[in-house]
Amino acid sequence: MSAHCCQPPEPEQGKSLDGRYRKILWIALIINITMFVVEIVSGVKANSVSLLADSLDFLGDAANYGISLWVLGMAIAIRARASLIKALSMAAFGVWVLVSAVWHFVIGVMPSAETMGLIGVVALAANLSVAALLYAYREGDSNMRSVWLCTRNDALGNVAVILAAIGVFGTGAAWPDLLVAMIMASLALHSAWSVIMHARSELSG
């Protein structure tokens, strides 16, 4: 990253940056709320823990973008504290998915591979469009980085759901769905730790 990127922007440049970033966050917020509704309905019908995990991930990201819109332009300490809140929510999501995966394994639910695959492709297209919009802001402060990480994780999670659908269809078993859910949980926990460390360094700096 070039030197001028590490320095505070001039007032006019900062205002322009915030304006562009704010518009992108609003677009991302609308997309995530829409996909949350689509995925949670489809996940319940398909009995898929990976789809349900992805639906709550969309809901969490909607809250993530909403918080980011609220703190945009505020002092870095406030943005860092908001990042800590979002990181804790990412960690809670990861724990919830792990518990859900274990529960589905115990009760032996068989998911619908067709629904998983179709919704996975739609969700991937949605997240790739958001990731493309946010790519230029991936190396910002901890708040911007947490937004980028959430979006990146979503796209990777969608690919994993599609692969799980193929696995369920090919094996006739539920374990690919459960495996993907556990991988998504691990990714969420790792990203949460990364954001927490970044935010703490900003608060102590």
**Pairing-aware structural class of the strands and helices?**
mainly alpha
The CATH class designation is: Mainly Alpha
Order of helices and strands: HHHHHH
Report the CATH architecture: Up-down Bundle
CATH-assigned homologous superfamily: Cation efflux protein transmembrane domain
What does this structure look like?
This protein has a single domain, classed as Alpha-lytic protease prodomain-like (Up-down Bundle). The protein contains six helices and no strands. With 205 residues, the chain is mostly helical. It has helices at residues 11-46, 49-71, 76-107, 113-134, 142-171, 175-204. The chain is globular, with a radius of gyration of 18 Å. Residues 25-203 form the Cation efflux protein transmembrane domain. The chain crosses the membrane at residues 24-42, 62-80, 87-110, 116-135, 155-175, 181-199. Pfam families: Cation_efflux (PF01545).
Structural features:
205 residues, mainly alpha, Alpha-lytic protease prodomain-like, globular, disordered N terminus, CDF/SLC30A, transmembrane helix, zinc ion transmembrane transporter activity, transmembrane
